[in-house]
Specification:
This protein is mostly helical and about 210 residues long. The chain has two domains: about 50 residues, Arc Repressor Mutant, subunit A, CATH 1.10.10; about 150 residues, Tetracycline Repressor, domain 2 (Orthogonal Bundle), CATH 1.10.357.10. The chain has ten helices and no strands. Helix 1 crosses helix 2, helix 4 runs parallel beside helix 7 and helix 5 packs antiparallel against helix 7. This is TetR family transcriptional regulator.
Length: about 210
């Protein structure tokens, strides 16, 4: 009689290995924001407090590391949107808190990497992007249904403006404008409130509009 071959489960990563991976991603995120995606990986290793071999063991090439950083930022942004959706009070206030949190994630500084350094249609990236877009759209729909968010704005309007307002002007140090970001975001949010005080030119911008631009 034949006996079934037992299926061996893949070993779970050790806790210290997971911590090292998280430290690498956190260090890379900081340095990509400060210096761009071409920062030497040995500098990332030094800031993370690990050896070069540990970086390459986790991320075989630069594209893999950049992709992980972008996906991690999108995942954290999705988590912020989920927390906002879980709030049961003022729908517009929840949306506003999400917008300020999203700006702190520096997603604007990472956006150029999506198109310049690796395949923007990678399954991991597409899944992370789809999740955040769906969650933010739900936040906006809830605020519109409450009569608090003007109806002539779309998800693309919100995301592109958050990216633009949280990105420092050319020639300005990234972290030197932090104190202005939330002030300008609040001005933008005030302009989103219903009832609208003006008529916007064109139509509400979707994320597909932005991708095709």
């Amino acid at each position: 009689m034949e006996t079934a071959t037992p299926v061996r489960k893949a070993p779970r990563p050790r806790a210290d290995a997971l911590r090292n991976r998280e430290r690498i991603v956190a260090a890379a995120r900081e340095m990509f924001v400060e210096l761009g995606p071409d920062v030497p990986l040995d500098e990332v290793a030094r800031r993370a407090g690990v050896g070069n071999a540990t970086v390459y063991r986790n991320f075989p090439d630069r594209d893999a590391l950049v992709r992980e950083v972008v996906c991690s930022v999108m995942d954290r942004t999705s988590e912020a949107a989920e927390r906002a959706l879980a709030e049961t009070g003022d729908a517009f206030a929840a949306l506003a808190r999400f917008v300020h949190t999203a700006a702190d994630e520096r997603i604007s500084a990472l956006c150029p990497m999506v198109t310049s350094t690796f395949d923007q249609h990678h399954p991991d990236l597409e899944a992370a992007r789809e999740r955040v877009e769906q969650l933010v759209e739900r936040l906006m729909d809830r605020a519109k249904a409450a009569g608090q968010l003007r109806t002539d704005v779309g998800l693309g309007d919100l995301m592109i403006t958050v990216a633009q307002l949280s990105r420092p002007p050319a020639g300005t140090a990234c972290f030197s404008v932090d104190r202005f970001v939330h002030r300008h975001l609040q001005l933008f949010l005030d302009g989103l409130r219903a009832p609208a005080r003006s008529t916007l030119p064109g139509t509400a911008v979707t994320m597909e509009d932005l991708r095709q631009a």
